[in-house]
Structures are given as structure tokens and as C-alpha cells.
Give the backbone structure.
Amino acid sequence: MTRSILIFGATSRIAECVARKYAEQKASIILVGRNQEKLGAISQDLLMRGANDVQYYQLDLAAIGDIQEFFTQNSKLSSVVDTVLVAHGVLPNQQDIQNSWTLIRQSYEVNLMSAMCIATEVTQWFEEQGRGTLAVITSVAGDRARKSNYIYGAAKGGLSLFLQGLRNRFGSTPIRIIDIRPGFVDTPMTAHLPKGPLFAEPERVAEGIVKAIDRGADIVYLPWFWRWILLCIRLIPEVIFKKLSL
């Protein structure tokens, strides 16, 4: 059976790498993102790589109303899409926004609210179909808040909890809810950060995402070693943790 995957935030580097892997499997791919020119270029590349069919839609993923309108206008997709990947997000500079509620709210509209809106709409589709896979890219930053990025971490942590609730809600059904938690990935979003040995290539993370979708995983850390790093971080007593510079 040919997979039909809908990708939100399709112009992100990780999402593009995932789409390429599905193109090689001759999947039908639907791209959603903000930059129409880049969406067009990616769609042509995917067709050349073997995709069965590629469609793309321009959408501002920071605008909740636009997202809801997208689902209303494209309800026909509900009968053909079996997999959805939510891959958009922004990495704000903590120092720049931590004293501005307006900027904090704007980051939450992208990193939390829009993803929750998409997940709500998609799971309604899947509930009607009786099956489907929703994979959402969150972050290891959501496992424990740190002073260097607690605004970003709070959004991703909240999103992980939302996905956990959906997973529990659909736990006895063929609907799969996958929480993808990458660590540092070498993408344009992290271009301003100094690179170190913990950084992974987006192609490696994309491969892990495809494998997680194929096996219907629940929570996946990418690369795998982040599971154990975050376990150690979560085990640090708060009386010690609050004094650390992380």
C-alpha cells in the first residue's frame, strides 16, 4: 500500500530529509509551509526522487485561524492521508524574549498552539478513518526546563504532554501518536549555536523518524543517546539542579 503523508513545516531541513526518504519509497506526499517558492522547488526534487505524487500548500503556521481554514477547505485530504508529520517550530533567543510576554506568546503560537491545533484536527480525521499515524517533532528541551531555554522548553514540554494525552485517548485504537524528541541537529534553526559532538545531521534524524513511524513508536529520542542523557538530567535533585548553569 502506497503511503500518503502530509507534512507541516515542510521547508524545514529535517522535514525535507524525511520527505526525500518517503519519495524514495514512492509515497504520495503533501507539503505545507510558508515559503511557496521553496515548496515548489522541494516538490520538484521529490518527484525526481521517485515520489508517486506531490502536492503543496502555502500556509502561515503561526496563524491558528489560517490552520483551521486549511482543514475546512481541504477536508477531502482526510480520506487519503494516513500519516501526518508536524515539523515546524522556531528556536527563540532566551535572552531576547524572556522579559517580553508579547514575544513569549508569539513563540508559543508557533511552537505549541499551532501544533496542538493541527493535532486536534488530524486526530478527528483519523478517528473517522479508524486509523492513522500522527508524528510530532518536539524536543529534548521539553524534558526539563533550563535557564538557557526554558521558554522554548516549556512549549515543547507542553506539546509532549498534549501528545501523551492523545496517545492515552487513542491507546486502544489503531491510531498512533508519536512524540519525536531530537537533541541538537545541524540545521538553519541552530546555525547560531556553536557546534559540538552532540550535534546530529538532519539526515540521521530523518531516518530515525521514518523508522519510528514504521514501527508505531510512542516516544523517540534522536539520536538514541539523548534518552539516557535526559534521564540523568531528570534525576538530578531540584535543590542541586536549580544552581547549575545549563
The first strand starts at residue 4 and ends at 8.
